[in-house]
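Run log, item B.
One chain of 101 residues. Sequence copied directly from the ordering sheet:
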Amino acid sequence: MSWSIAKPLRQSTSTPYIKRFIMKILVRNLARTMTEHEIRTLFSEHGSVGACNLVLDTETGQSKGFAFVEMPNEDEAKKAIESLNQALVAKSKIRVKKADV
């Protein structure tokens, strides 16, 4: 019986890898009554929103008061952060910054 060593598959280099920009933004101090839709709408006023995730308590299903928003355009994301950080939204002064990922 003869054994042969398998060669690794050759990856195609004809299609270049294109890295798409997505800025993940952390939004804190949200009113517990705010919904994901309201947060998405708030950020949509400043540009395109790719995703919005309101963090909920697993036991109660209630908001934990923070969310993550993803924006695919760097300039729009920076403008949203500048405009919304320390803004009064639903009687809460929210804090908005680029998320550490």
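Observations after the first pass:
- The CA atoms of residues 3 and 12 lie 27 Å apart.
- Helices lie at 36-44, 74-84.
Flagged for discussion on Thursday.
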